[in-house]
Amino acid sequence: MRDALKKYACFLANIRQFFCEQEVVEVCTLQLLEHPVTDVYIDSITAQVNKDIEQKSRYLHTSPELEMKKLLAQGSGDIYQICQVFRDNEQGSQNFNEFTMLEYYRLGFDIHQLMDDIVQLLKTLGVHYPVSKLSYAQAFIQYGNIDILNTDFKTLKIIAIKQGLTSDFEWIEDLQILLFTHLIEPQLQTLPLCFIYDYPASQSALAKVEGQVAHRFELYMNGVEIANGYDELQEDAGYKDVFSAELNKRQQLVKFVPEINQAFLSQLENSLPQCSGVAIGMARLLSQIN
Amino acid sequence: MANYSTSQFKNGLKLMLDGNPCSIISNEIRKPGKGQASNKVRLKDLITGKTLEKTFKSGESVEGADVMELNMQYLYSDGDTYNFMDPESFDQYVVDETGMGDAKGYLVEQDMCVVTLWNNNPISVTPPNHVMLEVVDTDPGLKGDTAGTGGKPATMNTGVVVQVPLFISIGEKVKVDTRTNEYAGRT
């Protein structure tokens, strides 16, 4: 027991050492928020507070992303955070309602520089696995023989049905994600460390879009999703568009539709500096190192 | 029949898929960070016996199949059909050649077995894992071979042919594993 605790503590110390050397500053942001996340398939856990005074709903953060971006907009420079995050309605053997996340932002980095930086971070943790890098489109060609960026929704549905997959989706991105999860991901199991980058624009989330692709990446270790990173949107207008689109989708799916997070948008009057950021699931990472 | 949501999926649950009743063998939930959860389900088609894989969106509903598995006694065969009785209700059921499948090689009259009913019609018969059958035809064994090395084909009283040790002779009763069609010892 104590050995395992010491090992984890040492793991955390090594991460902190890595960031300290690169002058990335550790921060600690609020976990109990006024606004829940708007992501279509991520749900916040609600907490009722101040019942004896004036009851309000507060939401446990599902990731420290927006709070950290407020700091970035105020000129924090490179920052990282290691914290517990909370998500409702999580299911599956690798998903939990509470888990530890490492999130960090590097100013001036594009996603390729950030992927290289993650490889360096992993090296300090004793991970020297060979690194594979595949664009989302390459992965689909190589492992699924599908030209994912140029295949329309109707054709993808036919492909899904042939594979015994459900095709009952409202939006193409949901079907792309299903195809990736069930056709591509299982074949990444042979790759110890694999970055998938440049996602279809339809899956841009909070990443910058250029042409058909969003500058977004995920790290897979032995087929397990470990990290998700973006070349971050900078302007408030971009965030507003994403939030509105997500809330619209939530409404169509008859899910909880919160108010748009105006407090965050107003903090972006001085837009975010160009930066790339990534969120890493610590337990998943550890499970692939041991 | 009720519908089942993916959150109610568990091994053994019977669902209707493409018009056939199926039984869930395994159910794996996958939830990508940014995407919707999905259930990857392996099922056995109870009519064809084939295993299939289907993926559902989590939250999707699927029609349940009215399938029951009952312990029944095998009574007799009319040649083309096989007659069974539920010893609790005394209801009798007639199973055709297709529904009987491999089970006909392992059941002798009065034996107990499991009969699967779909909408109260029998669709398949599962014999016990081990049954006692009588050898009705086999080549004479070699004298002195008691170790059972090697083997020879033997026809049982049900018609099924099983590889048995050389020392087994006609008229003997042997135990047969119905899942592998292998000799599993003598009484």
Structural class by helix and strand composition of chain A: alpha+beta
- Number of strand elements of chain B: 16
Spatial separation of the terminal alpha carbons of chain B: 45 Å
The rounded Rg of chain A comes to: 19 Å
How would you sum up the major sheet of chain A?
9 strands, mixed
The residue ranges of chain A in which pLDDT falls below 50 over 5 or more consecutive positions are none
Explain this structure.
The complex is a heterodimer of chains A (290) and B (187). Chain A is of the alpha+beta class and 290 residues long. Chain A has nine helices and twelve strands. In chain A, strands 1, 5, 6, 7, 8, 9, 10, 11 and 12 form a nine-stranded mixed beta sheet that branches. In chain A, strands 2-4-3 form a three-stranded antiparallel beta sheet, with no helix packed on it. In chain A, strand 9 (209-210) and strand 10 form a beta hairpin. The longest helix of chain A has 20 residues, at 2-21. Chain A starts with a helix and ends with a helix. By secondary structure, chain B is an all-beta fold. Chain B has one helix at residues 97-100, and strands at 3-5, 14-17, 20-30, 38-45, 51-57, 61-63, 67-77, 81-85, 92-96, 112-118, 121-126, 130-138, 152-156, 161-164, 173-177, 182-186. In chain B, a hairpin with a 4-residue loop joins strand 13 and strand 14 (161-164). In chain B, 24% of the residues are buried.
Set out the fold topology.
The complex is a heterodimer of chains A (290) and B (187).
Chain A: H1 2-21, E1 25-26, E2 32-33, E3 46-49, E4 56-60, H2 65-73, E5 79-86, E6 98-107, H3 111-124, E7 131-135, H4 136-144, H5 153-162, H6 172-184, E8 193-200, E9 209-210, E10 213-221, E11 224-231, H7 236-252, H8 262-267, E12 275-281, H9 282-289
Helix pairs in contact in A: 5-6
Chain B: E1 3-5, E2 14-17, E3 20-30, E4 38-45, E5 51-57, E6 61-63, E7 67-77, E8 81-85, E9 92-96, H1 97-100, E10 112-118, E11 121-126, E12 130-138, E13 152-156, E14 161-164, E15 173-177, E16 182-186
Antiparallel strand pairs in B: 1-6, 2-3, 3-4, 4-5, 7-8, 7-10, 8-9, 10-11, 12-13, 12-15, 13-14, 15-16
